[in-house]
């Protein structure tokens, strides 16, 4: 079970976007995460008339390492560490380590 999943709201704790919040768009297999509006870079793109793509300079999100983000805890308003525990019915859930509140219901 992954501690960070698609659709989670995270806060960046290291790098040029430190302190900013965003939603996880994709979790990559190599331990990196695409976060909406975080780690924006300018890329040049060639035009492709067959697909209707115009050329020029575009803004694009790049992946950020999983270690540089924390799950946002709405109870505290800060980023928080996440753990995994097993409930009585043998189902695994994620929980915030600061207040033992369950993330997934």
What features would you describe in this structure?
- The chain is an all-beta fold.
- It contains no helices and ten strands.
- The protein has strands at 9-12, 21-27, 32-35, 40-45, 56-61, 64-65, 69-73, 78-80, 82-86, 92-96.
- The strands form three sheets. A six-stranded antiparallel sheet has the order 6-3-2-1-7-8, with no helix packed on it. Strands 4-5 form a two-stranded antiparallel ribbon.
- It is elongated, with a radius of gyration of 17 Å.
- The relative contact order is 0.21.
List the defining traits of the structure above.
two-stranded antiparallel sheet; 6-stranded antiparallel beta sheet; about 100 residues; SH3 type barrels; mainly beta
* CATH structural fold name: SH3 type barrels
Radius of gyration: 17 Å
Largest sheet: 6 strands, antiparallel
What is the straight-line distance between the termini?
A: 15 Å
What is the domain tally? 1
Oligomeric state as shown: single chain
CATH class: Mainly Beta
Label the structural class. mainly beta
Task: Furnish the topology, listing elements before pairings.
Elements: E1 9-12, E2 21-27, E3 32-35, E4 40-45, E5 56-61, E6 64-65, E7 69-73, E8 78-80, E9 82-86, E10 92-96
Summary?
The protein is mainly β and 105 residues long. The chain has strands at residues 9-12, 21-27, 32-35, 40-45, 56-61, 64-65, 69-73, 78-80, 82-86, 92-96. The chain contains no helices and ten strands.
């Amino acid at each position: 079970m992954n501690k960070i999943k698609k659709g989670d709201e995270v806060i960046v704790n290291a790098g040029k976007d430190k302190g900013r919040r965003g939603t996880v768009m994709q979790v990559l297999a190599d331990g990196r995460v695409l976060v909406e509006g975080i780690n924006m870079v300018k890329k040049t793109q060639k035009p492709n008339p067959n697909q209707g793509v115009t050329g020029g300079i575009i803004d694009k999100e790049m992946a950020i390492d999983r270690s540089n983000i924390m799950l946002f805890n709405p109870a505290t308003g800060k980023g928080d560490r996440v753990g995994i525990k097993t409930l009585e019915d043998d189902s695994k859930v994620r929980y915030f380590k600061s207040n033992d509140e369950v993330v997934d219901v």
